[in-house]
């Protein structure tokens, strides 16, 4: 019945700060929808940022900044990702470590976005 994921909403306290992080640190392309919603393109899907004070409906029953735990696939080797993060003074919370992904084992790094969401940057193990 289902075929994939179109977008995933991340509730943030400051749209500009979140856009800066996801574009500058993670290299995502931005598409502005309006002042309360922004899409960050990730392949053929979007991470949609919603401002905490939005009146947009429907929405989650308890939209909470910092409640997401996302695993994102990297096109680059993790050592390059780690060097990029270090150059930007972005703290790696954990990693590289071996984890289990949807299609097999991953090498992963963990970091947090400005709202405290946990982001796992991963590559399939070879």
Automatic annotation (TrEMBL):
SUPFAM superfamilies, sorted: Glyoxalase/Bleomycin resistance protein/Dihydroxybiphenyl dioxygenase
Domain VOC: 4-124
Cross-referenced Gene3D superfamilies: 2,3-Dihydroxybiphenyl 1,2-Dioxygenase, domain 1
A Pfam family hit: Glyoxalase
InterPro entries xrefs: Glyas_Bleomycin-R_OHBP_Dase, Glyas_Fos-R_dOase_dom, GlyoxalaseI/FosfomycinResist, VOC_core
The protein, known as: VOC family protein
Provenance organism: Halomonas koreensis
